[in-house]
Amino acid sequence: MKSNPRNIAMAALVALAASGAFAAGNHAGGHGHGEAIGKPGVAAKATRTVNVDMTDGMRFKPSSIDVKQGETVRFVVTNSGKLKHELVLGTEKELKEHYEVMKKNPEMEHADPNMVTLAGGETGEIVWQFTKAGKVDFACLQPGHYDAGMKGAVNVSKAVKK
Ligand SMILES: [Cu+2]
């Protein structure tokens, strides 16, 4: 007897565990955005504070922010609405992918240095260093919010050599 029922059950369990780990990894560990958008900043090195307001009108104010390459920015984000909102920095592609995952799992809690999720009335912070010139997008990935236009962009201007 080479394959008894017990071995088959074990194999099924292993397969289940593997698929579960993969699904979790997709979200919790899988943001792998290298340094495409920059990297978590050191608060003490922040050269500027930018206040961003999030509203139930599905808008960020401001929705367009100009920074210089290399700059570390402290975003003080306030949710002035009643709904839960969040600010997530990323490339447009990453944000869209992440949004699809959020739509399928609305109760999912997520927390990474490139995002802040806030209940109505709360204020939080992101400290981020913009290492590359170009555009860094941000969006609220709460289901429905991105579709409603709750997004913006950080325009990173190229550092001038001195
Ligand atoms: Cu929102």
Protein described:
The structure is a single chain. This protein has 162 residues and is of the alpha+beta class. The protein has a single domain (35-157), classed as Immunoglobulin-like (Sandwich). It has two helices and ten strands. The protein has helices at residues 5-28, 92-104, and strands at residues 39-40, 48-55, 59-61, 64-68, 72-79, 85-90, 115-118, 123-129, 134-139, 151-157. The protein has a five-stranded mixed beta sheet, with no helix packed on it. Strands 4-10-9-6-7 form a five-stranded mixed beta sheet, with helices on one face. A hairpin with a 3-residue loop joins strand 2 (48-55) and strand 3. The longest helix is centred in the first third of the chain and has 24 residues, at 5-28. The chain is globular. Bound molecules: copper (II) ion (CU). Residues 85, 140, 142, 145, 150 line the site of copper (II) ion (CU).
